[in-house]
């Protein structure tokens, strides 16, 4: 499998660069993925050949832009197996999608006495919208605990989700712990109490096949830029019957049916939630990214990334003075690996790695309550995608050895 994936690197022009006179080893795909030439070309081609505003022009370019934009929606529908294309709302990204649900569904359906349940492993974008809604509505926000190895404590989930719960908001995959959560099971628990489940899929959709109907997610959010496409485009999937009863999130052009002086009516799904000029080139880029991912195969991507983790994790665990957060068993660990070593500050570690051309993220990873829960201020995080190789893992191991030598630890 390594050979096929080795060749894939040629499709990503940025990976050919040298950083500090070393070949670039990009290990920050959890923050954003790199883009293949096909996606870069699709965006350029859009601007060179069919750029026009969508849904408002009868002339040829306007029609072509609209067709391509709506084709991208269809590709996303198939990619996540949504039942209807109108269940796919274009947004700016995961953060925007989750704010949409909190502002619209949350505002309309939460009342005093209700509870919202999230987890300790949430990214701020699946935490603050619920925290602020809870403050505004005077409702209780509950956190599902983690087990000692950083997995979601499903026994605690059963205890925390009750008949008072109206919304369960949970990451499909953590951006820190390398953990993938059992969304199907959590959805069952939520639904048995008549709560809806909102899933943050930012770290899952790029890496594994996702079927929103199989998961039975009520809402599912993800970002294009973490799955090969441009920044500023993302998706909110929502079940049709929920989206239909929800109020618009933003008001303005394109989202209306008719506007009178003192009242207005709204457009149908999905356009009710797409106010103003949309990121058409981004949507087309995301469509192209999905073509690319489908061509490689999501099952194969998942298997290959597992191979990388199986290779990396035991080697990292072998390093004296290095602490890994999240499960130590590689079969329970996805391609996000967070660690600290020898009391070195993560920023110093990441700066030292950069001297070797190795790009990793250091910080709280927009998960401050999780950092507190783990008892750390920050971690170093290496995150892999299918354009990484075992040679990249070896470079990471070398960077760790060099850093230890540099700081004499
Ligand atoms: N949810 C998770 C689990 C994430 O990892 C991220 C981004 C988001 C939501 C927000 O996505 P956005 O596209 O709206 O910004 N995570 C990271 C990260 O871990 N480092 O940089 C961005």
UniProtKB/TrEMBL annotation:
Its cofactor is pyridoxal 5'-phosphate. Pfam families: Aminotran_5 (PF00266). It catalyses: (sulfur carrier)-H + L-cysteine = (sulfur carrier)-SH + L-alanine. Its EC number is 2.8.1.7. One of its GO terms (molecular function) is pyridoxal phosphate binding. Residues 25-396 form the Aminotransferase class V domain. Keywords: Pyridoxal phosphate, Transferase. It comes from the Bacteria. GO terms for biological process: cysteine metabolic process. InterPro entries: Aminotrans_V_dom, Cys_dSase_SufS, Cysteine_dSase, PyrdxlP-dep_Trfase, PyrdxlP-dep_Trfase_major, PyrdxlP-dep_Trfase_small. It is an enzyme of class 2 (transferase). PANTHER family: CYSTEINE DESULFURASE (PTHR43586), CYSTEINE DESULFURASE 1, CHLOROPLASTIC (PTHR43586:SF8). Belongs to the class-V pyridoxal-phosphate-dependent aminotransferase family. Csd subfamily. NCBIfam families: sufS (TIGR01979). This is cysteine desulfurase. The lineage of its organism: Bacteria, Bacillati, Bacillota, Bacilli, Lactobacillales.
């Amino acid at each position: 499998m390594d050979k096929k994936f080795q060749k894939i690197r040629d499709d990503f022009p940025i990976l050919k660069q040298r950083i500090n006179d070393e070949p670039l080893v990009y290990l920050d795909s959890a923050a954003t993925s790199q883009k293949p030439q096909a996606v870069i070309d699709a965006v350029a081609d859009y601007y060179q050949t069919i750029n026009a505003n969508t849904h408002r022009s009868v002339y040829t370019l306007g029609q072509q832009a609209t067709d391509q934009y709506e084709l991208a929606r269809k590709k996303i529908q198939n990619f996540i197996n949504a039942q209807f294309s109108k269940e796919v709302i274009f947004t700016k990204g995961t953060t925007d999608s989750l704010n949409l649900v909190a502002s619209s569904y949350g505002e309309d359906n939460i009342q005093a006495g209700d509870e919202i349940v999230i987890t300790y492993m949430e990214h701020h974008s699946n935490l603050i919208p619920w925290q602020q809604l809870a403050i505004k509505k005077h409702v209780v926000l509950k956190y599902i605990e983690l087990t000692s190895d950083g997995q979601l404590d499903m026994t605690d989930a059963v205890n925390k989700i009750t008949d008072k719960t109206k919304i369960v908001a949970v990451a499909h995959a953590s951006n820190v712990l390398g953990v993938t959560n059992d969304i199907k099971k959590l959805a069952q628990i939520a639904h048995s109490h008549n709560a809806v489940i909102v899933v943050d899929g930012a770290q899952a959709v790029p890496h594994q096949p996702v079927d929103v109907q199989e998961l039975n997610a009520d809402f599912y959010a993800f970002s294009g830029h973490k799955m090969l496409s441009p920044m500023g485009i993302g998706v909110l999937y929502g079940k049709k019957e929920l989206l239909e009863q929800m109020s618009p999130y933003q008001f303005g052009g394109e989202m209306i049916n008719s506007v009178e002086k003192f009242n207005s009516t709204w457009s149908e799904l999905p356009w009710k939630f797409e106010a103003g000029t949309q990121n058409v080139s981004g949507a087309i880029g995301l469509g192209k990214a999905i073509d690319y991912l489908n061509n490689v195969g999501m099952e194969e991507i998942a298997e290959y990334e597992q191979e990388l983790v199986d290779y990396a994790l035991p080697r990292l665990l072998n390093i004296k003075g290095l602490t890994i957060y999240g499960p130590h068993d590689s079969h329970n660990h996805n391609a996000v690996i967070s660690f600290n070593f020898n009391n070195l500050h993560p920023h110093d570690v990441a700066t030292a790695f950069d001297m070797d051309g190795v790009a990793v993220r250091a910080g709280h990873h927009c998960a401050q309550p999780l950092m507190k829960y783990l008892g750390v201020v920050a971690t170093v995080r290496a995150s892999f995608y299918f354009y990484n190789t075992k040679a990249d893992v070896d470079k990471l191991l070398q960077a760790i050895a060099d850093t230890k030598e540099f700081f004499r630890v």
